[in-house]
């Protein structure tokens, strides 16, 4: 479930960046209408501000966050497994 949110957040970020790139590559400065040029410039400026999904405004939902959560969860699992194995070894010695 977490992966779907994190991949959606990464997709949103890349798509927002590509909007500004697409407008810039469209030769917007050659338009004769100054109002259109101003609006397209506004789109380019707005696309430079990163849009992102957050979890409770505490951390971003992206693939880097997902990898960190998986890494931390696996570390906790390994610690719990080590404690469990150690407790089984202590029981066998008694």
From TrEMBL:
Transmembrane segments annotated in the record for this chain: 66-85
Primary residence: membrane
GO CC terms: plasma membrane
Location(s), subcellular: Cell membrane
One Pfam assignment: 7tm_6
GO-annotated biological processes: signal transduction
GO molecular function: odorant binding; olfactory receptor activity
Topology versus the membrane: Multi-pass membrane protein
Domain of life where this protein originates: Eukaryota
Keyword annotations: Cell membrane, Membrane, Olfaction, Receptor, Sensory transduction, Transducer, Transmembrane, Transmembrane helix
Descriptive protein name: Uncharacterized protein
């Amino acid at each position: 479930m977490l992966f779907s949110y994190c991949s959606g957040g990464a997709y949103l970020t890349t798509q927002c960046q590509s909007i500004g790139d697409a407008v810039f590559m469209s030769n917007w400065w050659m338009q004769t209408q100054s109002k259109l040029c101003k609006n397209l410039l506004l789109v380019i400026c707005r696309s430079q501000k990163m849009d992102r999904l957050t979890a409770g405004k505490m951390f971003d939902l992206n693939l880097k966050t997902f990898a960190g959560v998986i890494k931390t969860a696996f570390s906790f699992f390994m610690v719990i497994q080590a404690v469990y194995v150690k407790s089984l070894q202590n029981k066998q010695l008694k």
